[in-house]
Amino acid sequence: MSQSIVLANIFHRPMRSLATILAVGLEVALILTIVGLTQGIVMDSAKRIEGIGADIILRPPGASFLMATSAAPMPIKISEALYAVKGVRYVTPVLTELNSQGGLDLIYGIDLPSFNEVSSGFIFRSGSEFQDPMDVIIDDIYAHSRKLKIGDHVTFLNHSFKVCGIVEHGKGSRIYLPIQTMQNLMGVVGRASLMYIKCHSKQDVPEVTKKLKELLPGYTVLRTEEFVSQMSSAINDMAALRYFINLVTFIAALVGFFVIFLAMYTTITERTREIGILKSLGASKGYVLAVFMKEALSLCLLGFLFGILLSFGGELLIRKIFPSLQIVLGLEWIFKAAVIAVVSASLGAFYPAIRAAAQDPIDALAYEV
Amino acid sequence: MKVILEAIDLTKVYKVGKIEVPALKGVSLKVREGEFISIMGPSGCGKSTLLHTLGGLCQPTSGKIIIDGEEISSARDAVRTDIRRRKIGFVFQRFNLLPTLTAKGNLEIAREIYGNGRDDKDHIHQILTLLGLENKVRHKPSELSGGEQQRVAIARAIINKPSILLADEPTGNLDTENSQVVLAMLQELNRKFNQTIMMITHNPEAAAVANRLIEMRDGKIVPHEHDVSWDAAKEDKIYI
Lengths: 369, 240
Known about the structure:
The complex is a heterodimer of chains A (369) and B (240).
Chain A (H helix, E strand, L loop, with lengths): L1 H11 L1 H39 L3 E4 L14 E2 L2 H6 L4 E12 L5 E6 L1 H8 L4 E4 L7 E5 H7 L6 E4 L2 E9 L7 E4 H8 L4 E2 L1 E6 L4 H12 L4 E4 H9 L1 H4 L1 H32 L1 H9 L4 H37 L9 H27 L3 H5 L4
Parallel strand pairs in A: 4-9, 6-8
Antiparallel strand pairs in A: 1-11, 1-12, 2-10, 3-4, 3-11, 5-8, 6-9, 7-8
Helix pairs in contact in A: 1-12, 2-8, 2-10, 2-12, 2-13, 10-12, 10-13, 12-13
Chain B lengths: L2 E14 L2 E14 L3 E5 L6 H8 L7 E6 L2 E2 L5 H11 E4 L11 H12 L6 H10 L15 H13 L5 E5 L7 H18 L2 E5 L3 H4 L4 E6 L2 E2 L8 H4 L4 E2 L1
Parallel strand pairs in B: 3-8, 3-9, 6-7, 7-8, 9-11
Antiparallel strand pairs in B: 1-2, 1-4, 4-5, 9-10
Helix pairs in contact in B: 3-5, 5-6
């Protein structure tokens, strides 16, 4: 029955209820979208690295999992030593750089012939390979999101490049420049950020990995699956990313707390007389407390459901407007968002509900709105 | 007749800032089962305070209240609440229905607080029929007339079969016609169901439906020449 008084109260002030539901929904959507985007970008990046088809990734000492933050201290000449290792079939050096002009994209500087050997080659949607040092190859998603076609000019690293080829997505990056051009522009001639290595067969991978570790002490030598797995869990391992997510979550939870607090505070002020009525009927403090907590949690539940809808709607919208951005709405974070929403709503409702429960029945009955 | 309620030397002092305002100054009375008592007196004489104190809505400053064998005056809030839930029914001048619920919802919530939930639909229907409200169950208070609202309030007050019904000027906000209807219903409840009722009123005509009249002045019950026993008072309206 108290359910019906809870529902009746929610419908009695539809605008206030709606505003509360919207705010809780935004809280949930904010958490899910930010976390989803962070995870989506990292996961997408990991997937694309996997898509290259290399067996082993070699990285310089102390390299971060975020490729964009890595310098380029690795001499390309190392590749000659790598070819000497038994079991290594192909090696391709890649120079990475973060492009912040007109977006946030990771650029790959590639040596096209060796990159093709490791990755079995690009599938061209249109155009062809590099014809000029100032040519750029982009993937279909990037081309679609920026409305670029063959022959268009686009600026990277403060220089204008001509789009010479549009390839199927899924091989490391979305933007590929000739490695020599990129080395010259960045002032790191003869160097690379990482090397992708292809072995003769999968059976060779453990042995090659072992040998490479012996050959290049201090370097990071990881099997691709291992690298991808570590990259995926980097979200939890990287302090800065963790702090960022925690901060966003905390702010969202704070919004939820204050929205519910204000809604319930105004509610109990407005319903002081009703509290007096319930008490005159013999309602205990616990009963009154439960009525208001149930109301807050019902609003929170509706807000959570709205937040889920909003997040999935936002995901569709993001995919449509920014096709190159990936967003992952995982069950784990949906559950976490629910817990955060419930905890913040409970805390927000608790003081007003306690205040309601402690009302003196005679004062409450005499209350005039 | 069994004594349902007994007040012994009740006092109640309100503190307004540093000033103490005595509202009850040693009130003693006994209410027997099946009595219909009217309490009259000028505004501020302590009638409502007496009713609230007897109903456990507030604690007396001193004195004793025993309701159906249970002493509530010194009981803590939770115990008074429990006794109020089980043994007291309140009717107020301003009806005090929950505005967001229908008439039936108002009755059901009283049942739920009592602890019976929705398990006694027949009883609810019986009371609604008795009070002529069977066609108004789905109406919210704002869709009911004053008289109808007060009848719903009475129905809510008696739905849990309380030992005593405390009515604080139940006709104070009603026109003459609706007042008569409400008073007739209270009288019927008293006669047919032997419901014990204490009713505050300013209206002598309303007071006349009771079978015992208590007059209050300055926080005290006004003593009268004849202290008439319940048996004698049962048939006549006599001041005591």
